[in-house]
């Protein structure tokens, strides 16, 4: 049991998606009893067992689907070949609860100004792991971000250059000044992230794209950029803008962004 839980902890740390399957109900003859557990990796390999055979094969299939959908589920099985359910002769029935083991969603914010001060705690309370990066010791103070553990006082362009691709990470650019934003974006735009959003007017975004394309950045790279960042809720204050950004990030996480755009959400001007 300890080995299984240690495996789950290590999977969370590694960022490798998986699923935990637990038998929660049995009726009649079954190969395993209530509480039996199995971890299913994204490649279909398993740790632990549901008893083997057709049952285990079906549990793996259900688990991989749960990983793809990022949603838990309960799957029911009848272990009776004659009833046409599974190619097994046990004759019993069981239910398996399947819980995806997914990497923690990360939000990395460049810039520690007023909007970030309002945005960071909202995202933290919404279940994201939040990091704030800035080179200003006056802005990046612990008393301004008491709930955020990962505060990085460092050069933002250098940090962007060293940041590895992470398909589970959301990038928010709220730094100060056109040139700095452009330098940071240049280091990030060709990497693989779940989301990249940047504050700024349509004119600014267009000029920045033109500059970066002259520097060799391909047009296709800008398809992932959400700019101006945030859903268009008419917000003007830092707090209102922070809410619009948080709402957009959550919409991306939940797969609802396209639906919101059709209902009047802010369109991507960086095309």
Q: Which keywords apply here?
A:
single chain, 271 residues, alpha/beta, Rossmann fold, 2 domains, 6-stranded parallel beta sheet, 5-stranded antiparallel beta sheet, 8 helices, 24% strand, elongated, disordered C terminus
Word description of this protein:
This protein has 271 residues and is an alpha/beta fold. The chain has two domains: 2-101, no CATH class; 106-262, 3-Layer(aba) Sandwich (Rossmann fold). The chain has eight helices and eleven strands. It has helices at residues 2-14, 53-69, 114-125, 156-162, 178-188, 202-214, 238-254, 257-262; strands at 18-27, 37-41, 46-48, 73-78, 93-101, 106-110, 129-134, 150-153, 166-173, 193-198, 225-226. It has a six-stranded parallel beta sheet with strand order 8-7-6-9-10-11, sandwiched between helices. The protein has a five-stranded antiparallel beta sheet with strand order 3-2-1-5-4. Helix 6 links the parallel strand 10 and strand 11 (225-226). Helix 3 (114-125) packs parallel to helix 7 and helix 4 (156-162) packs parallel to helix 5 (178-188). The protein is elongated. It starts with a helix and ends in a 9-residue tail after the last helix. Residues 262-271 have low confidence and may be disordered.
Short recap of the structure:
The protein is α/β, with parallel strands linked by helices and 271 residues long. It has helices at residues 2-14, 53-69, 114-125, 156-162, 178-188, 202-214, 238-254, 257-262; strands at 18-27, 37-41, 46-48, 73-78, 93-101, 106-110, 129-134, 150-153, 166-173, 193-198, 225-226.
């Amino acid at each position: 049991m300890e080995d299984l839980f240690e495996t789950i902890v290590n999977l969370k740390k590694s960022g490798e998606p998986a699923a935990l399957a637990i038998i929660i109900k049995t009726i009649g003859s079954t190969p395993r009893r209530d509480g039996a557990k199995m971890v299913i990796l994204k490649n279909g390999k398993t740790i632990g067992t549901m008893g083997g055979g057709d049952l285990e094969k079906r549990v793996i299939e259900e688990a991989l689907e749960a990983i793809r959908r990022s949603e838990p589920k309960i799957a029911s099985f009848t272990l009776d070949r004659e009833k046409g359910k599974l190619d097994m002769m046990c004759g019993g029935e069981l239910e398996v609860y399947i819980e995806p083991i997914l990497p923690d969603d990360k939000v990395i914010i460049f810039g520690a100004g007023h909007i970030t001060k309002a945005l960071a705690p909202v995202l933290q309370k919404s279940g994201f792991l939040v990091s704030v990066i800035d080179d200003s010791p006056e802005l990046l103070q612990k008393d301004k971000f008491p709930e955020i553990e990962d505060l990085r006082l460092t050069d933002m362009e250098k940090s962007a250059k060293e940041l590895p691709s992470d398909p589970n990470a959301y990038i928010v650019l709220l730094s100060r000044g056109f040139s700095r934003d452009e330098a940071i974006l240049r280091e990030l735009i060709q990497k693989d992230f779940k989301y990249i959003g940047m504050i700024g007017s349509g004119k600014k975004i267009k000029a920045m794209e033109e500059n970066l394309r002259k520097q060799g950045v391909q047009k296709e790279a800008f398809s992932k950029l959400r700019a101006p960042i945030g859903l268009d809720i008419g917000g003007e204050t830092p707090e209102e803008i922070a809410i619009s950004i948080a709402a957009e990030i959550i919409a991306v996480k939940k797969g609802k962004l396209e639906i919101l755009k059709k209902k009047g959400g802010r369109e991507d001007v960086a095309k």
